[in-house]
């Protein structure tokens, strides 16, 4: 009896060690892919900024190219993050390896011609695709999903340089309200390895200083409560309108070529008229502007909100997370005077809590706040992110996300 238990224990620990080594391997491979994606996107964004709004002229035609690519060669890859959720739910058992390059190229095209979109979703799809491919060579329980979660963590960490956030996000995003604990032994080394390797090639996390903040007292707690409600509503509404706008546009214009071309024209005109390309790209300009002396307008957040939804609803590719950071931080700067608080402080709260509300996650937004702004602000991030998570009404930018709540 004792020997059998001992053998069983050794078997479990052997599996944990194997997962750790696999995580390191996955992290390194995914990081290289993220460097290619991230550096390519960096060059594209700089080039488009140098060229100005002239690139918007090609946005509708770029949309046609994206649809053509997926229509002829991408096939199931067009599902993107939806396919990742389907694999987790057992609705599919296969993520084609070609999904990664197709998502990378289509996202590059979107940003090259000035679309308003993010990058995180693609980063996680790269990680999920690569890791799921290697997962089929291992036979321990749930290896496919475990490797996929590890790859998602590696993808997030490799691009954003925030390994702790990446771990929590990958563990909790697939099923809201739960964590995939079995994937931790693989996801943790994968995430830290990816962040380290990508850092060697120049992909580092963004950090901002927000200065001193008053002690957490009753007055400040009430203000944080209200801010949590506001940011939670904005994040939840983003997810709600993204889902329903996609459905509305798809039902009204069933032909994907016509849909992306017509919507591309509308988006291009709006991007030019409102801000002359200020709202093109991932929104890094709004994020940096929120934490520096650059001008942030009262309408920045809502225009980024609307134009990102329209870009993604049309069929252009990219993520949502960085635009959510931009929406939250720029909104925070604007409403800070109403509460008599430091604009940088409120911007940091918006940065993480709008992201959390829109993705229907709780731990990841707290972690991103600490990794980007400082661990000493944990109590403030905890309160605001908790409230925003509660009031988002289970809305999520990921349509196939399952929810498990008491």
Summarize the structure.
With 406 residues, the protein is mainly alpha-helical.
The CATH homologous superfamily of the largest domain is called: Clc chloride channel
According to DSSP, the number of beta strands is 2
CATH architecture grouping of the largest domain: Orthogonal Bundle
Number of structural units classed as domains? 2
Compute the number of helices.
Answer: 16
Alpha carbon gap, first and last residue:
39 Å
Order of helices and strands: HHHHHHHEHHHHHHHHHE
Low-confidence stretches: none
- Mean pLDDT across all amino acids: 92
The outline comes out as globular
The CATH topology of the largest domain is Clc chloride channel
Name the helicity range. Answer: over 70%
**Strand content range:** under 5%
Largest sheet: 2 strands, parallel
Walk across the major sheet and give the strand order.
1-2
CATH class of the largest domain reads Mainly Alpha
- Sheet/helix structural class: mainly alpha
Radius of gyration: 21 Å
User: What is the oligomeric state here?
Assistant: single chain
Plain-language structure description:
With 406 residues, the protein is mainly alpha-helical. It folds into two domains: 2-200, Clc chloride channel (Orthogonal Bundle), CATH 1.10.3080.10; 218-403, Clc chloride channel. The protein has 16 helices and two strands. Strands 1-2 form a two-stranded parallel ribbon. The protein is globular. The mean pLDDT is 92. InterPro entries: Cl-channel_core, ClC, ClC-type_chloride_channel. It is found in: Membrane. One of its GO terms (molecular function) is chloride transmembrane transporter activity.
């Amino acid at each position: 009896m004792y020997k059998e238990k001992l053998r069983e224990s050794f078997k479990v620990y052997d599996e944990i060690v194997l997962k750790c080594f696999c995580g390191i391997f996955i992290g390194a491979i995914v990081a290289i892919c993220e460097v290619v994606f991230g550096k390519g996107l960096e060059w594209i964004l700089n080039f488009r900024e140098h060229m100005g709004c002239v690139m918007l002229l090609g946005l509708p035609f770029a949309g046609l190219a994206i649809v053509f690519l997926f229509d002829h060669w991408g096939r199931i890859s067009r599902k993107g993050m939806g396919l990742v959720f389907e694999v987790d739910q057992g609705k599919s058992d296969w993520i084609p390896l070609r999904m990664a390059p197709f998502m990378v190229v289509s996202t590059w095209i979107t940003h090259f011609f000035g679309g308003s979109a993010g990058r995180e979703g693609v980063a996680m799809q790269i990680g999920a695709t690569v890791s799921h491919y290697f997962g089929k060579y291992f036979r321990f329980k749930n290896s496919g999903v475990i490797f996929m979660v590890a790859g998602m963590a590696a993808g997030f960490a490799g691009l954003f340089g925030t390994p702790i956030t990446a771990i929590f996000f990958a563990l909790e995003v697939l099923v809201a309200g739960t964590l995939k604990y079995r994937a931790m032994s693989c996801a943790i080394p994968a995430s830290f390895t990816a962040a380290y390797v990508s850092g060697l090639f120049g992909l580092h996390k963004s950090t901002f200083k927000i200065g001193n903040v008053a002690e957490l007292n009753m007055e400040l707690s009430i203000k944080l409560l209200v801010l949590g409600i506001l940011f939670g509503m904005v994040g939840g509404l983003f997810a709600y309108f993204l889902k329903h706008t996609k459905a509305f546009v798809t039902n009204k214009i069933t032909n994907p070529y016509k849909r992306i071309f017509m919507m591309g024209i509308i988006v291009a005109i709006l991007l030019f008229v409102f801000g002359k390309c200020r709202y093109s790209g991932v929104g890094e300009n709004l994020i940096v502007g929120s934490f520096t002396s650059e001008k942030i307008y009262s309408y920045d957040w809502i225009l980024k909100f609307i134009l990102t939804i329209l870009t993604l609803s049309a069929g252009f590719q990219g993520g949502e997370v960085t635009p959510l950071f931009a929406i939250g931080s720029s909104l925070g700067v604007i409403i800070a005077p109403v509460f008599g608080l430091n604009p940088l402080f409120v911007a940091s709260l918006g940065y993480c809590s709008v992201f959390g509300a829109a993705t229907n996650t709780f731990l990841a937004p707290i972690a991103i706040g600490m990794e980007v702004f400082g661990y000493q602000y944990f109590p403030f991030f905890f309160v605001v992110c908790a409230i925003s998570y509660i009031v988002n009404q289970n809305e999520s930018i990921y349509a196939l996300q399952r929810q498990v709540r008491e």
